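Please decode residue identities from the backbone states below.
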């Protein structure tokens, strides 16, 4: 009995001890939070999922707070972010920092007059900021040419001037610059081998459809059915469709050298026919088109997916387990076509500062630190000798702990995408070891452009100045109406249950776009494109002259 009482007392003491420790820890974290000032951040990148800011000692976020005196409260809606941001602009309820990718929202932000010119902002609140000295001049000038002033910090900087400031030690990454693109087509090596297939067996559309049929008959190692084809979930229109119609040869140029919408090109029909066959034969599934990024990543991680078409950087795959044959070639002999930003890359995310921010000096200090060499090193690599080391040649290497932290979604290491600087990173990185994850990912992301017959043009030639197509103009209304219509109609084409229905839905797609004013919008874009040809001193060539009409029979493309 005495022994039982002693054990009970010990248990109660232990519980009280743990409660005290937990309370003390929470009290310490609350105290830490009270020492710093909250900055609000809104982003329209729905699949960007940084964890809640932690003040735990040793965390990346806590280290940033110590350096800057600030912490971030992220608001990243899973859907309709652009609409919500537009409403915030109208209501004058902007957060301190806005990270945007939607071109219409970016134009709306700038025209609203509610975001700072970064030149004015830093000259006023952080006049010694490195950004006033080392932000790439070519990128700033191009931004001013497009928008009238320097309003945003652009992520993934990799311009000529950026590469002069942050010089790489080899030519490896410079070569990547001219060939690498995130949107691509890749195949699961394990399923490829199990189906007794090689890369040479997945070159053309008809070959790939045959490969899908073989893989469909397999079961995954966990006993579940295989998924021969996966598009990029709810992002498939922007990435998967765009990639595939280029793969089949759809161009932005007509036979007279004028701009034309790719969705009106016959090669687009060939790509749609390929996808319709995949859906009708059970190689792909319409419900997968609604997956968000996390659901898509979970699905692709199970070794059930054979072919993935979309943004390869949004998958978190082990690239050593995947391979790309480059484009899926049209059975009609069309050259693959792709665009890469070769002149002055625009980057990806644009980070703006709201004029309504209550602590502009703090925002400036935070912004300045996160984009500095010190801030980039800490937020992307962590603590020296713990998370990374430098070798005798000055190259950076992640330690085992650093690798673990980098791939941990609950750790903020490497998750500040909006401040990422490609040129800076490449100046520190060694050439990846042959067969390493980085090497395999680079091979996947350059396979399309490196394919010998691929025609690559400079996407800067299609760049439009701010408000060139105003949302309230006739062309702006046409553009928004067309975007909404395509989002509604393309799924109907892909899911058509017969050749007849496919043909009806596709012809409706073409005629409706023309009725909605697609040609008028094309003419507006063409005028700026022709000016860009003169400005940059180069043009986009026509490589697939219009030939015979292609058709669809028995659910497959046919020559």
């Amino acid at each position: 009995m005495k022994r039982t009482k002693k054990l009970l007392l010990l248990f109660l003491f232990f519980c009280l001890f743990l409660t005290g420790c937990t309370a003390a820890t929470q009290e310490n974290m609350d105290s830490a939070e009270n020492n710093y000032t909250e900055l609000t951040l809104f982003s329209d990148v729905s699949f960007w999922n940084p964890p809640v800011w932690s003040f735990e000692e040793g965390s990346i976020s806590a280290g940033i707070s110590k350096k800057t005196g600030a912490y971030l409260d992220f608001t990243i809606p899973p859907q309709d972010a652009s609409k919500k941001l537009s409403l915030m602009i109208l209501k004058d309820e902007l957060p301190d920092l806005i990270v945007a990718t939607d071109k219409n929202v970016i134009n709306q932000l700038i025209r609203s007059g509610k975001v700072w010119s970064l030149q004015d902002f830093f000259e006023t609140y952080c006049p010694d900021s490195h950004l006033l000295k080392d932000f790439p001049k070519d990128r700033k000038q191009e931004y001013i040419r497009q928008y009238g002033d320097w309003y945003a910090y652009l992520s993934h900087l990799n311009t000529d001037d950026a590469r002069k400031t942050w010089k790489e030690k080899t030519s490896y990454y410079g070569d990547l610059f001219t060939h690498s693109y995130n949107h691509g087509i890749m195949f699961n090596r394990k399923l490829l081998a199990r189906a007794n297939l090689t890369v040479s067996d997945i070159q053309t559309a008809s070959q790939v459809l045959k490969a899908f049929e073989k893989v469909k008959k397999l079961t995954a190692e966990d006993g579940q059915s295989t998924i021969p084809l996966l598009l990029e979930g709810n992002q498939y229109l922007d990435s998967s469709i765009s990639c595939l119609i280029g793969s089949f040869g759809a161009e932005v140029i007509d036979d007279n050298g004028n701009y034309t919408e790719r969705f009106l090109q016959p090669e687009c029909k060939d790509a749609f026919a390929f996808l319709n066959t995949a859906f009708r034969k059970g190689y792909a599934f319409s419900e997968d088109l609604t997956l968000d990024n996390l659901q898509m990543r979970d699905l692709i991680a199970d070794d059930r997916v054979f072919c993935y078409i979309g943004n390869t950087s949004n998958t978190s795959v082990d690239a050593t387990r995947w391979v790309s044959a480059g484009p899926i070639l049209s059975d009609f002999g069309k050259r693959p076509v792709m665009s890469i930003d070769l002149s002055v890359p625009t980057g990806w995310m644009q980070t703006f500062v709201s004029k309504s921010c209550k602590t502009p000096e703090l925002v400036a200090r935070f912004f300045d630190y996160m984009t500095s060499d010190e801030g980039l090193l800490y937020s992307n690599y962590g603590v020296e000798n713990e998370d990374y080391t430098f070798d005798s040649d000055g190259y950076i290497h992640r330690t085992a702990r650093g690798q673990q932290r980098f791939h941990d979604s609950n750790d903020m290491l490497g998750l500040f995408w909006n401040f990422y600087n490609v040129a800076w990173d490449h100046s520190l990185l060694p050439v990846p070891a042959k067969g390493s994850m980085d090497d395999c990912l680079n091979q996947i992301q350059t396979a399309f452009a490196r394919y010998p017959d691929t025609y690559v043009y400079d996407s800067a030639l299609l760049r439009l100045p701010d408000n060139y197509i105003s949302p309230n103009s006739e062309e702006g209304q046409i553009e928004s109406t067309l975007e909404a219509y395509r989002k509604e109609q393309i799924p109907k084409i892909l899911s058509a249950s017969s050749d007849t229905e496919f043909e009806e839905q596709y012809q409706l797609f073409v005629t409706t776009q023309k009725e909605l004013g697609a040609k008028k919008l094309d003419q507006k874009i063409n005028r700026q494109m022709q000016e860009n040809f003169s400005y940059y001193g180069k043009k986009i060539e026509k490589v697939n002259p219009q030939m015979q009409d292609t058709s669809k029979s028995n659910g497959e493309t046919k020559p």
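Observation: The first strand starts at residue 37 and ends at 43.
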